[in-house]
Amino acid sequence: MNKTRVAVAVLLPFIAPLIAGAVPIGDFPALDKIIDAADAFAYQAQKHEKRQESLKSILPEREAAEPPAEPDDEQPENQIGEVLGKPVYRDEIRTGEDIRLSTEFHRLFAHPVMEEYKREHKDDITPTESEIAAATACFDKEHQQRLEGQELQLRWQLKAAERKLAAGGVTEEVEKNLNTQRRSLQSRLTPPGRSFAASMLNNWNFQRYLYDGYGGGRILWQQAGLEAFDAMHQWLTSLEKDGKFKITDPELRSVFYEYWTTMKHGTLCRSAELTHFCSPKASRAGSEKCSEEEKGTSLISANPATTNQ
Questions:
Q1: Per DSSP, what are the bridge partners of residue 25?
Q2: Can you tell me the distance from the alpha carbon of 263 to that of 243, in angstroms, rounded to the nearest whole number?
Q3: By the 8 A CB rule, do 277 and 271 touch?
Q4: Which region, left, alpha or beta, applies to residue 302 given φ > 0 means left and ψ of -120 to 50 means alpha?
Q5: Confidence at residue 21, expressed as pLDDT on a 0 to 100 scale
Q6: 3-class DSSP state for residue 89?
Q7: 81: alpha, beta or left, given left = phi > 0 and alpha = psi -120 to 50?
Q8: Which of 36, 39, 99, 135 is most buried, judged by most C-beta within 10 A?
Q9: What's the mean pLDDT in 160-169?
């Protein structure tokens, strides 16, 4: 399969909204960057497999689906670091074909300090009710616009699937497929709503807070929204220097940071390249730079995830 086909196969969920006009082309990364992202995706898959093999010698061997074992406090050599004053042990690392090691270290080390940081800065990060209401209205409006011309067909397909399920007499596999189709159609017909808007705003406020406080830098386009890529790296190294966490095994520490140091990412840009990436503080202060309504609209235009609701 050539590179162009790989790009289409991997990134079709991102390209389709652009073709359909769901995302303004001025707010979407250039298509050549999308092709590059597909190449990076394939490269990283191969690299990840090699990395898993190289680390088998330093990780405990367990069945793929087996949960992490209880830490062995009697064996200090089993400790690989600590987070917020609590020890972290090698046996807490889950292993398996579908588990990326760097993701495990982020779960064990980054997630606890992130949750503490969010609690400490809750007033700066938590969106206001008016912000959530504005974003909800924008998301729901954009969702309804995407449904124009196809809502009746989708509802007819949903009714047909429900009738077949109610009638029964189908094989287990057919029933499973019908239930999957029903859930998919229900999801496509249901507006994102308040919970989605609140989740997006919480993440966006947190990312922008890091961006403002830790040197700005590049921004990564993710399915779940924009990520302050360089700022998050700087933030974590700062927390490590402050003793919030430490990874004593040098090789495992390099795995923890490989997301920022060695892993290739497809679409990285600067804040100036985005039409909207406003400061939460600016919007709360009523700045003309980013009103509450604009904030909701900017989340739609700047986040690929909104096109998949």
A1: none
A2: 25
A3: yes
A4: alpha
A5: 37
A6: strand
A7: left
A8: 135
A9: 94
Q: Which secondary-structure segment (H or E) carries 220?
A: strand 218-222
Structure tokens at 309: 């609701």
* Mean pLDDT along residues 169-182: 95
**Is the pLDDT assigned to residue 69 strictly greater than 60?**
no
Q: Tell the burial category of 176 from Cβ atoms under 10 Å away from its Cβ (0-12, 13-18, 19+).
A: exposed
Give CA–CA dist 111/114, Å, rounded.
5
Task: Inform me whether the pLDDT recorded for 171 exceeds 80.
Answer: yes
**With contact defined as beta carbons under 8 Å apart, do 83 and 113 qualify?**
yes
Give the separation between CA 113 and CA 100, rounded to whole angstroms: 20
Token digits of residue 24: 């303004």
Tokens linked to 125: 């990060």
Under 8 Å between Cβ of 135 and 299: yes
DSSP H stretches of helix in the chain: 3-20, 31-54, 101-105, 111-120, 122-125, 129-147, 151-167, 172-189, 193-213, 229-241, 250-261, 280-284, 292-302
- 168 vs 157: CA distance, rounded Å: 17
Which distant-in-sequence residues (6+ apart) come within 8 Å of 168 by Cβ?
none
Asked if pLDDT for residue 22 goes beyond 50, the answer is no
| H or E element in which residue 82 lies | strand 79-83
